[in-house]
Amino acid sequence: MKKRSLARRLTYSLIAGIFFLGLCLGLAEIATRLFYHPSLHFQTADLDPELGWRPKADYSIQQTSYSEDGAAFPAHYQTGRDGFREFGDPESDRPKVWFIGDSFTQAVEVSNDRTFYRLLRDSLNFELFAFGQAGYGFLQEFLIFDRYFDLIGPDLVVWQTCDNDFIDNHLELERESAYNPRLYRPYLTAEGTMVWDQSSGLPGWLRRSRFLGLLDRKWHELRLKRAVARNQVAESYVPERGRAYDKFDESVKITEQLVRKIAERTPDSVRVVAFSASAYQPQLQEMERIFTEAGLPFFPGPAHAINTAVANGEVARTGDRFHWNELGHRRVAEALQEKLRPYFTEWNDK
After folding, report:
1. Residues in the chain with pLDDT < 50?
2. Which residues pair with 274 in a beta bridge?
3. Cβ neighbours of residue 256 under 8 Å, at least 6 residues apart?
4. How many whole angstroms separate alpha carbon 310 and alpha carbon 3?
5. How much is the pLDDT for 198?
6. How many Cβ atoms from other residues are within 10 Å of residue 348's Cβ?
7. Residue 206 CB-density burial (10 A; 0-12 exposed, 13-18 middle, 19+ buried)
8. CA quadruple 35, 39, 44, 49: dihedral positive or negative?
9. Could you tell me if 167 and 174 are in contact, meaning their C-beta atoms sit under 8 angstroms apart?
10. Residues linked to residue 76 through DSSP beta bridges, in sequence order
11. How far is CA 46 from CA 53, 174, 176, 183, 206, in A?
12. All residues at 6 or more sequence positions from 84 whose CB lies less than 8 Å from its CB, including other chains
């Protein structure tokens, strides 16, 4: 029997190896999709060529959420057109209020009727619009604001901020952070131009694999664990150095540009206010200054209301010890109600 040549044997071995590897990856992908589910903040999102990612439209999922003390509660997350959590009637005669923010406004942890903005609508009687997406920075939020502003025609815009917005707003700061969506997104540079980049992680086309995404995340978590233990992350540098930390200082300046864009895009007849979801310093102080200097009222009260609730022994956060459970959303709604009510009194007096 004639022996196969070395080249042919190597070719057959290579083909067999590729087939075996493909089979293993396929089985791993199937197993990962069956037994592993990523955070709902990103499981509920689709990749987007302009924004990086955005919430899925007309999407619904019934889940079990957990409070910080481990107590379980049901949550029905649902979106409507274009991924809005709430999209009211743009032709309504009622005052139209639009809430914009990140994961705190997306609020995947609670049902639609338990969100802080639905509670506010029920008490103040307005036409409600709400758009939030986990991991968003101000530029992504501004692009949404600019795209839908004329369609909605809001009377009041309520912008939800968070301390990690400074990280989301700056590519290099994001690269040094523990918190990091690690997705391709637009950034505003210090020179005022818009660029698209990715701070770390798999490129988008590979991220469609749940298995490779899991491996990538686990590797990232191992590296982060070491960096956090050594306090070698942005979240440690910012409170230690403040504006002396060059990347944070530049992010503050970029955030100033973005807030000015919000103010310039908004007609004088429309009110824009902002509030913070977290009270970390010096981020909260800088955020309040930025909005105030742009002529936009800023309310730190909701963040303090959550901290006060926790200090009083209330369980106001979810199992991640960061986002709000149903009680947390009620406390935020109560804090915002006293700040927003004067705007409705003013409209009713006209």
Report:
1. 1-2
2. 159, 298
3. 290, 293, 294
4. 77
5. 83
6. 8
7. exposed
8. negative
9. yes
10. 62
11. 5, 21, 25, 11, 14
12. 55, 129, 130, 131
Helix (H) or strand (E) holding 99: strand 96-101
Question: Are 152 and 98 contacting, i.e. CB atoms less than 8 angstroms apart?
Answer: yes
Length of the chain: 350
Residue 24's pLDDT is 72
DSSP 24: H
pLDDT digits (tens, 9 = 90+) for 281-313: 999 999 999 999 999 999 999 999 999 999 999
Q: What is the CATH number of domain 12-349?
A: 3.40.50.1110
Inter-residue contact 333 to 120 (CB < 8 Å): yes
Q: Which helix (H) or strand (E) holds 212?
A: helix 210-229
pLDDT, tens digit, 9 for 90 and up, residues 102-116 = 999 999 999 999 999
Eight-class DSSP state of 71: -
Which pLDDT belongs to residue 327?
97
Residues 6+ apart with CB under 8 A from 322: 278
**pLDDT recorded at residue 260:** 97
Q: Which residues pair with 161 in a beta bridge?
A: 276
Domain limits of the chain? 12-349
Q: Which residues contact 296 (CB under 8 A, 6 or more apart)?
A: 159, 259, 262, 263, 272, 273, 274
Q: How far apart are CA 212 and CA 214, in angstroms?
A: 5
Helices 246-265 and 138-152 cross at an angle (nearest 10°) of: 10
Contact 134, 102 (CB under 8 A): yes
Find where tokens 């509670």 sit.
119
CA distance 56 to 234: 30
For the chain, the first-to-last Cα distance in angstroms comes to: 100
- Which DSSP letter does residue 173 get? H
